[in-house]
Amino acid sequence: MTLKVHHLRPAPGAHTKKTRVGRGEGSKGKTAGRGTKGSGARVQVSARFEGGQTPLFMRLPKLSGFTPRNKVVFQVVNLDKIASLFPNGGSVNPDTLVEVGAVRRGQPVKVLGTGELGSVNVTVHAHAFSASAAEKIAAAGGSTTQI
Hints:
The chain is of the alpha/beta class. Helices cover about 20% and strands about 15% of the residues. It has 5 helices and 6 strands. The chain has a 3-stranded parallel β-sheet with strand order 1-3-5. It is elongated and about 95 Å long.
């Protein structure tokens, strides 16, 4: 005989019958597990009710606004940082910025226009650019590519 799912049974004593309260004094009758007297014995009181004290949800400060689930948080790199890290110019992308320690791996990068590039000719690949950064890179003879 092979064992099948419908042959399985719980161990003896593993399942006890449900106690039906309030069905006569012979079996959990009388107060039916509610104790004696008071509002808990007479009516269903919510778990958050604190007996007339100001409830916890009213005592705590409310948070304003909300955080959108799909908000993109960029790591920012300024032009003066690029100029100092790449004085000879060349190609700058998120991977090269990770190698020199300017940003962390796996997060989008945005280039901002603070500072000056001077005469550094760079080709920058990033996820986003500010308008002033794109202007200054183009003025220095470089190019921008949005990933």
